[in-house]
Write a structure and sequence with these properties.
The complex is a heterodimer. Chain A is an alpha+beta fold. In chain A, 45% of the residues lie in helices and 25% in strands. Chain A has a 7-stranded antiparallel beta sheet. Chain A has a 6-stranded antiparallel beta sheet with strand order 13-12-11-16-15-14. Chain A has a 3-stranded antiparallel beta sheet with strand order 1-2-3. The two termini of chain A are 49 Å apart. Chain B has a 3-stranded antiparallel beta sheet. In chain B, strands 4-5-6 form a 3-stranded antiparallel beta sheet. Chain B is α+β, with helices and mostly antiparallel strands. The longest helix of chain B is centred in the N-terminal third of the chain and has 27 residues. The chains are: A alpha+beta, B alpha+beta. Chains A and B meet through strand 17, strand 18 and helix 16 of A and strand 3 of B.
């Protein structure tokens, strides 16, 4: 990798080197071309499979189009792409037909993520993602730069950010070599051993991916003009055939076998997905920054400044809780959209370890018990669940009386409503608000008082009649659907609690500011 | 606690009236198209009549109720809002949390010299707290006054 950066003397110190407009790594050309091949193959595949003379010409036409337009476009894109870094901003010029000039002020940059999927790792390059606050997603992407360069950029931006633009003249000529080593220098505060990773996979049961795999399979089968039956016959040839025949005689057995198989597949994919995503998960604490690295095929590493962490979330489902396992997420601002502003700090760990780890990020002690909300909430939740069941069910029962069996679900709904109540609680202690909510997906929010943004007290018509309120404390980067809300607290208690939170919030800033 | 400018009732009424008029005309057109269809389920004019009546009722009642429950107050350290007919929401926006401020005015509001003050915070739910129905000069005055509280704190 050394010396692979063209047209710039690597001897130059980083601030000087990056101050001049730079191109991406030349190997990114290879990667762009390789990446453009699968869509081409996919477009051509049906023609190849059902080949005839006419199709051969169509195919040649496709290839010509590709050679005349797509390939030059890739080269032009590469040639037009320029980036440079000043003490104040990162500038990116790009685009062939529409030219884009983007400048990202350094003080708005929250995180620089180095992401390396399989191909870049083979070629010694990496993708650099620049993320900012307030942005809906990634603000700038460098695809691809060499790994050394990516680390240099990360380091350079960090140095500039710490020193503020006005002091930039005092920058050292080059970052010391020690800071460029592959592993971050901070203290490792969390790691996932392989056995733990496997275990956590077993708690992650998922049928979504199976559905995806099967629909992909369907496409492939169509290409080869095969039917699913032919595949099953082929799979069940030889030794398995007698079992299959026995199963076919009994529909119940067949059903059970299908369910068992689906569960097994769901389980295996769960394990595999966890493995690829969190393989080698490590979290370091380096001064006031968290450094995280994980991934099997796609290796990603990034930095989360502690001061950007808005709140901490302990997540679990009933199965995980049963065995004492939890997951720690950090709510941050302006991160990747697919993670909805939630950064995973520990995918799977014992409750006490999670608490210990969380306390390193933001010191707190989880209260022994949380204050429950009003019991009337059970009634309200039950009514809401029942309505959700009855509204579609009753018209259905008018046509199919058998649908009335669905009423058997009512006690289950009542039980769920009770569980909902038992799992809901809140507390405020030592300047931190705790809210726990949810049964199947349980969240415990830990929100420090200095992260509060806007205060809401709400009461719908029914809530007001029953003397209840809901409270929401809004924070930066909170999810649209998952946010700490205290639902159905008694009106007086609620108002008092909201007042207390607001007083503490004001007091916090009066003493420090 | 201050109410909104009463003229906002007219703005709301006009907006609702236009919305429901369009809806009523839509159903009326549908009814006319179906006029000679024998298998029609409903007699002619019933659907547009119902929609029109409902629209009329909503147009007359909702703006008044909405106006009655809207209150705001600019306090020394926070902006306080109270609103909602069905779901009554009380919002406290600490002034130090304001990220930026907008004053907006649409065509209709311009005719009545009204404007909205839009308060942006870093919060997700409340990234824009909207205070409608202010005299435009009042909205601008409030904006200029609150502008001083915007802090440089990054989130």
């Amino acid at each position: 990798m050394e010396g692979s950066v063209p047209a710039s003397s690597t001897a130059d110190p980083a601030p000087v080197r990056f101050a001049r407009p730079r191109r991406l790594h030349p190997r990114s050309l290879v990667q762009r071309v390789l990446k453009s091949l699968p869509p081409l193959a996919l477009a051509l595949a049906p023609l190849v499979m059902r080949g005839s003379d006419v199709n051969t010409w169509v195919m040649l036409g496709f290839l010509m189009l590709y050679a005349v337009f797509a390939l030059p476009l890739i080269v032009l894109q590469y040639l037009r792409f320029r980036y440079w870094i000043t003490p104040a901003e990162i500038v990116i010029h790009s685009g062939v037909l529409t030219r884009r000039k983007r400048s990202i002020p350094l003080e708005r940059i929250q995180n620089i993520i180095i992401e390396r999927s399989l191909l870049p790792r083979l070629l010694g390059t990496s993708k650099l993602k620049i993320e900012t606050a307030g942005g809906t997603g990634t603000e700038g992407v460098l695809e691809y730069v060499s790994l050394d360069e990516a680390r240099d950029i990360q380091q350079l931006v960090r140095t500039y950010q710490q020193r503020r633009p006005d002091a930039s003249e005092a920058l050292p000529a080059a970052a010391p070599a020690a800071e460029k080593t592959a592993a971050p220098t901070g203290e490792e505060i969390f790691a996932m051993p392989f056995s733990r990773l496997l275990l956590s996979g077993t708690f992650r049961f998922s049928l979504v991916y199976i559905a995806l795999i099967f629909s992909g399979l369907q496409y492939v089968l169509d290409l080869f003009n095969l039917t699913p039956e032919e595949i099953t016959d082929w799979l069940l040839r030889g030794g398995l055939r007698p079992y299959a025949q026995v199963a076919e005689t009994s529909p119940w057995l067949w059903g059970v076998a299908t369910v068992v198989l689906a569960v097994l597949l769901g389980w295996v994919t769960g394990v595999l997905i966890t493995l690829t995503k969190y393989y080698g998960f490590r979290l370091w604490l380096e001064g006031d920054k968290l450094h995280r690295r994980h991934g099997l095929l796609t290796l990603s590493e990034g930095t989360i400044p502690l001061k950007r962490v808005q709140s901490l979330i302990l997540r679990s489902n009933p199965l995980m809780r049963r065995f004492g396992w939890y997951r720690l997420e950090l709510q941050t601002m302006g991160y990747e959209v697919d993670q909805q502003g939630y950064q995973i700090a520990a995918p799977f760990a014992r409750r006490e370890d999670i608490l210990k780890l969380a306390a390193r990020i933001r010191p707190f002690t989880l209260p022994e018990s949380l204050t429950p909300v009003s019991k009337i909430t059970i009634r309200r939740t039950f009514v809401r669940y029942s309505l959700a069941l009855l509204v579609p069910l009753l018209p259905l029962a008018y046509f199919f009386p058998e649908a009335l069996w669905g009423l058997l679900a009512l006690p289950v709904l009542l039980y769920l409503a009770v569980l909902q109540y038992r799992n809901h609680g809140y507390a405020f202690a030592d300047g931190i608000l705790y809210v726990r909510r949810g049964v199947l997906q349980q969240y415990v929010w830990v929100v420090p008082v200095d992260r509060f943004q806007v205060f809401y007290g709400m009461g719908t018509y029914f809530q007001r009649r029953l003397g209840l309120r809901s409270l929401v404390i809004d924070t930066a980067g909170a999810g649209t659907f998952r946010y700490p809300e205290i639902v159905d607290v008694e009106a007086e208690t609620g108002e008092a609690f909201l007042g207390l939170l607001y007083d503490r919030f004001q007091a916090r800033f009066r003493t420090t500011a | 606690m201050q109410p909104l400018d009463p003229a906002v009732k007219t703005v709301w009424t006009i907006k609702l009236a236009v919305f429901w008029a369009v809806l009523t005309v839509g159903t009326l057109v549908y009814d006319v198209v179906q006029l000679f269809d024998r298998s029609r389920a409903l007699p002619f004019g019933l659907l547009p009549g119902l929609v029109g009546a409902l629209g009329m009722a909503i147009t007359l009642v909702v703006p008044r109720l909405r106006y009655r429950f809207w209150r705001y107050e600019r306090r020394p350290e926070e902006l306080y809002l109270e609103r909602g007919i069905w779901n009554r929401v009380r919002t406290v926006v600490p002034l130090r949390r304001i990220q930026h401020l907008d004053v907006s005015q649409d065509v209709l509001e311009r005719n009545f010299d009204l404007g909205k003050l839009i308060v942006h915070t870093a919060g997700t739910r409340s990234s824009d707290v909207v205070l409608p129905g202010l005299r435009i000069d009042e909205a601008e005055r409030l904006r200029d006054e609150l502008k001083h509280y915007i802090t440089e704190d990054a989130v």
